[in-house]
Amino acid sequence: MKKLTIAVVLGTTIVASMATGAYGATKLQEIKAYLNKDIAFKVDGKPVQLRDGNNNTVVPISYKGTTYLPVRSISDALGVAVDYDSKTQMIQLGEKVEGVSISSSLTTNTYRTKDSSQTTYNGKDYKEAIFDNADSARSSSFILEPKKKYQKLYLQIAAVGQDLGKLTVKDTETDTILKATEINVADGLVTVEVDIGGANQLFVYADAKGDGAVFVPLTTSYYK
After folding, report:
1. Mutual orientation of helices 71-78 and 2-9 as an angle, nearest 10°?
2. pLDDT of 77-90, one tens digit each?
3. CATH number 2.30.30.140 given to 100-223
4. Which residues 6+ apart lie within 8 Å of 195 measured at CB?
5. Strand, helix or coil at 159?
6. What's the CA gap between 24 and 50, in Å, rounded?
7. How does pLDDT run across 124-178, given as a tens digit for each residue?
8. Which DSSP state fits 57?
9. Residue 2: enclosing H or E segment and its boundaries?
10. Cβ contact 214:165 at 8 Å
């Protein structure tokens, strides 16, 4: 949470930018505040324009000597994940306490399966997995959409039959490689930890040989 700590050190008070429906809540108190367009921002020495979730420019609010900023804009600028639960009105910054399966964020994938003959690895049935066993040399890949809600990805993966070429996890919007590592058969089922704070979509890929397979259990791969 180093980046989040930076925001705290700057002494900036952050408030939530919530859906318009939330403004009908009875606990809200009306105040008189001012939009302050004169305040500029830098992150790691580089100028930053604050924007909301729809890419509209936003400006700080000044109220009784304190500057308030929309949490979504700050989280995007610092690369810190943010999630808002409208039912509990809880804002979550950074890693979540409990892991969330990557299953629901996986886009359509030909090799996604619940066939026990393909979801079982070393005697354990993981119930749902990606099992890419194509019979030619290829780039084995899939797309995840964490939608900036999570700080970390814990991806479990195994090479079956043949070692994989370098496993790469890329942020598709910034074209930034977040992780690159070797995956070998002898490693067994490994957990790859990736910092994905601020990432909307991820492209995960590795070079697979014709007689080798790629196994990714979806039930034990998760976000935090």
Report:
1. 130
2. 777 777 777 777 77
3. no
4. 151, 152, 178
5. strand
6. 26
7. 999 999 999 998 999 999 999 999 989 999 999 999 999 998 999 999 999 999 9
8. B
9. helix 2-9
10. no
